[in-house]
Design a protein that fits this description.
By secondary structure, the chain is mainly β. The protein has one domain. About 0% of the residues lie in helices and about 50% in strands. The protein is built from no helices and seven strands. A seven-stranded antiparallel sheet has the order 1-2-3-4-5-6-7, with no helix packed on it. A hairpin with a 7-residue loop joins strand 5 and strand 6.
Length: about 160
């Protein structure tokens, strides 16, 4: 971090939960005092607006809102999760507050996980679909769009926990 860099972050959540379903509305604010810096090697950010396939690290003056719905089915073997978020970032050319030149964006995640049991206990399969739509001025420069916004991403993942 640069000497004197200070970042203030506020993140909160309200929601409802029962045995099978949980829904939350989440908000994160990173003030314009400085950039929030967190080495990506340390894992996911501890904010309620965290969504798979994106980070808020490297940003200041950020407002993020995210709605999350989780539903358990089949005796908790099957988990369906949907997330919809909007992330208002500083201008892509403001590298002091937007380290990676990421445009403001909306993101949709649809996640389906199945946890195996019996002979395959410890394995789970996951299908994750992510759609990201860019907003704001990108100055007709593809470096602010390619691999950052206006994309879909499909993931099929097999995990083994021991």
């Amino acid at each position: 971090m640069q000497k004197g860099n200070v970042a203030y972050v506020l993140s909160g959540r309200v929601g409802l939960k029962n045995k099978r379903c949980e829904t939350t509305l989440n908000y994160t604010r990173i003030t314009d005092n400085g950039c929030f810096l967190n080495p990506r090697e340390w894992g996911i950010e501890p904010f309620y607006t965290f969504m798979y396939r994106e980070r808020n690290e490297g940003n200041g003056n950020l407002n993020a809102v995210m709605w999350n719905v989780k539903w358990n089915a089949m005796a908790k073997q099957l988990l369906l999760e949907g997330q919809l978020g909007y992330f208002a970032l500083p201008d892509v050319k403001n590298t002091a507050m937007n380290k990676y030149g990421m445009p403001s964006y909306g993101q949709l995640n649809l996640d389906l996980r199945y946890q195996f049991n019996k002979q395959l206990a410890g394995f789970d399969a996951e299908f994750l679909y992510t759609y990201k739509k860019g907003y704001g001025d990108t100055y007709n420069n593809p470096k602010y769009v390619y691999n950052k916004a206006n994309l879909s991403l499909f993931n099929f993942i097999i995990n083994y926990s021991f």
